[in-house]
Amino acid sequence: MIVINARFLTQKLTGVQRFAIEISKLLKAKIPSIQFIAPANIIHTDLAKSLDVKIIGKHTGVFWEQYDLPVYLYQHKKPLLINLCNVAPLLYTHQIITIHDVAFLVNPSWFNKKFVAFYKFLIPRIAKRSELIFTVSNFSKQEIIKYLNIDNDKIKVVYNGISELPEGQHKQNEFGKYVLVVGSIDQRKNIHMLLKAFNTIKDKSLKLLIAGDVSAIFNNKNNETLKNNEQITFLGRVDDITLRALYSNALIFVYPSLYEGFGIPPLEAMYYNCPTIVSDIDSLKEVCGEASLFVDPYSSDDIAQKIELLANDEPLRTELIKKGSENIKRYSWEKSAAIFADVINKLNQN
């Protein structure tokens, strides 16, 4: 028996959960006997039904994952467990884990103290005890080796893919000419530097739309710059239909993040023919290749200059759109799930 820890079905959708969902749907097709197990507080009910999820245990959250789940596994002959969202049961060894990044070790100040303490305790231990670790980029693999002292051969890279967002009824573009940023509102995403840059842009007809909400795991005390400015609109969390429309109508997509394990939003923007500006950090250089303009995320002047350059240079926008269309061909959930399935089947036979 092969089991997938489906606790992600109880969580709001971010890049980590999207990875888990897309991989799970394809693994269900590739390995029909695979079993999905979750606590009762599922919020993605239609998906849970399609995956034929089995609800076990009396608890939810971390306690379910650390107690109810391993108890169930030990009662059922210790099957191979697949974990897709960073965390996993500490008291279980016959498992594969997925670590998306080690940002909590690189800069703990980005996160709240309880989150950092929990991850610093848990992640190194499950990384050592698991049979294999998946991660989402070569950059993240090197970070795991560096910060967790894991052997190179124990880590397998499987990229994120690109999900086609649903098309539906939505308002026509009511914002005019705008720059779009998508991501959680936290220090790591560097929104405050983008706002500082945007305040210096001369074209006052250009708007900035920020799509994302504030997560409880982050330390957000320095994000008071999300204040009144007629050019800036904070949209909060948006649904996928709205997100598709935002990508499709944006003049430019900007992603000034200080640290990423992968970075799905720039690829989504490329998919919807939106030229991109991203931070000059190793993970985004790996993911975006030659299909983006790169900026120094610590320089508001550089960010502002690149936005103004791209906003006023239509041939450059066209060139980046073309390169983006080629770049996204490197990424496929189908390819990633095939790697997962191959590894799972080999481990399960041993």
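Next protein, fold it too.
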Amino acid sequence: MEKKNGVLTEEQMIKRASEGMFVRDLEKDRVYCPAGEVLRRKSVRKNGDVRYANKMACKNCDYKAMCTRSPWKEVDFPDKVTEARNLNWLKAKEDGAFSI
């Protein structure tokens, strides 16, 4: 995947997220989830990790059971980390449980 100035474009981030990743856009301070939704900054934890969430998107998400066990999408990112694998999502996709 070709990066512009070392950073993925928004289109590339969305594509990468669809492959089962939570992808953080540091410039816009948001995260793209595997279902194609945008998670916004919710809080900063005591350890410095930034937590992103989107309660409404998860509440209405058809893939919620395969994505996360929490009642809403939440993902924490340490400083400067831009990707986090969603292991539940990847396993469900491998098992053929769904396709987007």
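About the second fold: The chain has one domain: 10-94.
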